Amino acid sequence: MSNSVHIIGGGMAGVEAAWACARAGVAVIIHEMRPKTGTFAHRTGDLAEMVCSNSFRSDDDQQNAVGLLHWEMRAAGSLVMEMAARHRLPAGGALAVDRDAFSRDVTRAIRSHPLISVVEEEVTEMPGHGLWIIATGPLTSGSLAESIRQITGAEQLAFFDAIAPIVYADSIDMDVAWRQSRYDKGDTEEERTAYINCPMTKEQYEVFLDALLAAEKTTFHEGETAGYFDGCLPVEVMAERGRETLRFGPMKPVGLTNAHRPEIKPYAVVQLRRDNALGTLYNIVGFQTKMKYGAQTDVFRMIPGLENASFARLGGIHRNTFINSPTLLDAEMRLRARPNLRFAGQITGVEGYVESAAMGLLAGRLAAAELQGETLPAVPATTAIGALLNHITGGAVAKTFQPMNVNFGLFPPLAEARGGRRGRADRYKGYTDRAKDDWAGWLRPEAGAQAAE
């Protein structure tokens, strides 16, 4: 055990941690409870299964913090980014993938690596010895969650996450809907037509909104509270916050022109994004939901173009958990009470596939260095990965700590940058240029480390 790093969880963070360790020449054992012990949200026993969306969001590494995170991960040899590129789907400026093919290839790469072993078992208690990375994600099993609570002496925070439905493409009425990415974004025609758009008039929007609000919803168990993460709200919860909320969120009509009636501006637009390489499946963007199944089909078929929609998967809701990282973890993501235990991924309070994978990548590098008797320099807070690390290990206020996507608000301000909307493009470019230089500088001491493949 002293010669290996053990990882609990084979999600985005777990596979990135394992890959980083193996690239550094360190043996890894992944403990993954699926498929022997399943969850309501997962469908397969593959590693890095994409449960909610099939998108890694923006791939713009000059103007977007998520795109910058992609860039940093690629520079560090990320497995997730390599496989995402291999199975990329048209999605305008976003990085979307064929989720099943992506997970299958990640699983194949992990299982075929000579330094990585996968043990299919559920770990129910926090290990007392050895070097471990806890990357169990938001669906940490109840027994392990209880063990974490006992060790930390702190209650885990909880919020609820919802899954968007997936529609069969051939059931969408393309005499009503049309293909277009917002603002025609993309370098190819395929990218510029990556989304299917369903337009609504004001009257249709109001009727849809009423039905959405009145629909029967999933109820929570006694003692549970719905502390939703703002970045992944159920569509009906957004609707409850005001009748215009959806029109300024997932149903915003800006940057789109109805190909069937270009002279009429839609009042609201529902977008669907391609979900597989064949183009046979599309997910309804931003429509995570806690509605009951019968209500979902009734309400979503009110969307123009989806009147006869067939659903490959309906939406769902599940409880997510994360630790109060600012009070529990040190600067190297180790549990202060048990320094042999590192946490990585969504359980630390970062939100999203990319952020989770990035924290796994970093945890793996840190663990491998520790096992080899080395100490890595501090990760610059000016980088996307460093900004996330700083947020979860002390940058956030522990009392109000909530899951966070990467964003430029987490970065140290630029010494000289123009404020306001007019200066935003130059300011964002300043953030990304600085981050790339600093990340390259941080990686350089390890440039000689070769992958053990």
Structure, described:
Residues 5-374 form the MnmG N-terminal domain. One of its GO terms (biological process) is tRNA wobble uridine modification. FAD binds at residues 9-14. Its EC number is 2.1.1.74. With 453 residues, the protein is an alpha+beta fold. The protein folds into two domains: 4-156 and 323-446, 3-Layer(bba) Sandwich (FAD/NAD(P)-binding domain); 162-319, Elongation Factor Tu (Ef-tu), domain 3 (Beta Barrel). 31% of the residues lie in helices and 17% in strands. The chain is built from 13 helices and 17 strands. It has helices at residues 12-23, 65-75, 79-86, 99-112, 142-152, 189-192, 202-214, 235-240, 293-300, 325-328, 353-371, 384-395, 424-443; strands at residues 4-8, 27-32, 55-58, 88-89, 94-97, 116-120, 131-134, 157-163, 166-168, 178-179, 195-200, 268-274, 281-284, 311-313, 316-322, 334-335, 338-343. The protein has a six-stranded mixed sheet. The chain has a six-stranded antiparallel sheet with strand order 10-11-12-13-9-14. The protein has a three-stranded antiparallel sheet with strand order 3-5-4. Helix 1 (12-23) runs parallel beside helix 11 (353-371). Mean pLDDT is 89; it is low at 446-453.
